[in-house]
Description:
The chain is 47% helix and 18% strand.
Amino acid sequence: MDFEITETQQMVVDTVRTFVEKELVPHEAEVERTGEVRPELVEQIKQRAIDAGLYSANMPEELGGGGLDDLTLAMAERAFGYTCFALQYIVARPSNILRACQGDQIEKYLMPTIRGEKVECLAMSEPDAGSDLRAMACRAERKGDSYVINGTKHFISHADMADYVILFAATGEIETERGPRKLISSFLVDFDTPGVERVPGYNCVSNRGYHNLILNFDNAEVPAANLLGEEHKGFDVANEWLGSTRLQVASTCLGRADRALEVALDWAATREQFGQKIGKFQGVSFKLADMKLRLAEAELMTYKAAWKSAQGEMTDTDAAMAKISATEMLQFVSDEAIQILGGMGLMDELPLERIWRDARVDRIWDGTSEIQRHIVSRDMLRPLGV
């Protein structure tokens, strides 16, 4: 792996960082206070991101996207991670699942999403399914040229701002040695489809302004043409997405840790106690050293996975280890930063308490730390017949 950052990569990082500091950071306090991002602000950020060439940076250049390779994209995600998620996600990096679009789906869903004319969300989680996707109860039954969908999804991020959902539902069942196993398919479902209902979700301590919703499907009829990928092959489609989204989470955590360390370092260099800067006390300086060490370790793990992804060589284990390393590092760094600032670290005049709160969800969504460890250990044991 080449550790030298190219001129192009540095230019991308600098462009994103400048955009974040100018267009996003000034609105953080409002989002934290209100728990909302005003619709007019959403449109303002989106248009300025499009003008800056940052919108859909992960999509192929030939489709109108930014065409960034996975390593450069990870660096950009890190720069976006400097601010709160409710603002940075508006500069959309559409789900890679949409690359499975075929035929009319390309012009109806993929291209408008890349151009910023439509916004997608994704629905896997269910109240009784959690990490066990094979236990999902939401079902799509084929009836002629349509599928009829019934069931409930929850924890559906930014569904309130989306035009359609990439829905995963059971379309069949087969018998295995371990009992029945659901067959899963994925669908593109417009929110104006009769029988589709969006209702407010739960109040979350993490990521204020970035809402989760509950989706109810009551005999919602979707054209068979809206099947994404092949019937019963929904997991094949999902696997194209899970690795990249875990890298996104890891990269974002690097950016949040950068900011937390920045605040702590500035405080240690300026705050005086007992007649000297607190950074001179070993109890503080060693914390700073450990924070930098953990951040550097997570950076290497994340960038290695992203580099391998750019070569088409990343494994599920690579993505899982990157997510574990970066999310657990951020929890450590944000907590230590607050400890260095003392009581001031928990006040909302500074971003540390937000970073600390927001970090908690990163070890849960897109696959919990336990799921990631299962992926890693399974990969280790399988060659030994276990």
